[in-house]
Write a structure and sequence with these properties.
single chain; Tumour Suppressor Smad4; 0% helix; mainly beta; 11 strands; 2 domains
Length: 180
């Protein structure tokens, strides 16, 4: 099965594409109506005119039903190049000196030692969804990269969830964090 958006190969039961980070359906198949292969954007049909839209039905956000603090069957362990170890069991904020939004509940706020200050104060958010770790770059200054053995490195798009497999490495600024 391939990602509807970028054409990357998907493993069974995948919720997010490992290449582009976009959400696929709960069965790990391409989004509803997708063929599983890349679609030429020029072949895309424009949306109907506003008068053709039925406004009597409420808009439903597909992601609203996701529990962003689902516990993992076993915690994800993060080990930084500075020797720090963190256990991630739910939604966590990661950075050099992270400041949590009072409106958001975090299971943990993880402070990463970075003498060179290449990691932003509030650099990334970690989520666990369906026993899968996701990283979301919070518009950090130096970005976030996911390095998975045997695959090319993926630079996170700020605000978009990116899956992180056990055995992968997160690169934040000049610091690296191994995910076990």
């Amino acid at each position: 099965m391939n990602c509807f958006y970028c054409g990357a190969e998907l493993a069974p039961s995948t919720f997010f594409c490992p290449e582009c980070g976009r959400r696929v359906s709960d069965e790990g198949t391409p989004a509803e109506g997708g063929s599983g292969f890349y679609v030429d954007p020029l072949a895309f049909e424009p949306p109907p005119a506003d008068e053709d839209i039925d406004h009597t039905q409420d808009f439903v956000d597909e992601t609203a039903s996701l529990q962003l603090t689902q516990p993992a069957s076993r915690p994800f362990v993060l080990v930084s190049t500075t020797g720090q170890r963190f256990e991630v069991r739910g939604r966590s904020l990661l950075g050099r000196n992270p400041v949590a939004d009072p409106a958001v509940h975090y299971e943990a706020v993880l402070v990463v030692v970075d003498p060179g200050k290449t990691i932003s104060k509030s650099h990334a958010e970690l989520l666990i969804v369906a026993d899968e770790l996701l990283v979301i770059d919070l518009h950090s200054g130096n970005g976030t990269v996911v390095e998975t053995p045997g695959q090319r490195a993926v630079k996170c798009i700020p605000g978009m969830p990116q899956p992180v497999r056990r055995g992968s490495r997160l690169v934040l600024g000049r610091q690296a964090i191994d995910v076990e």
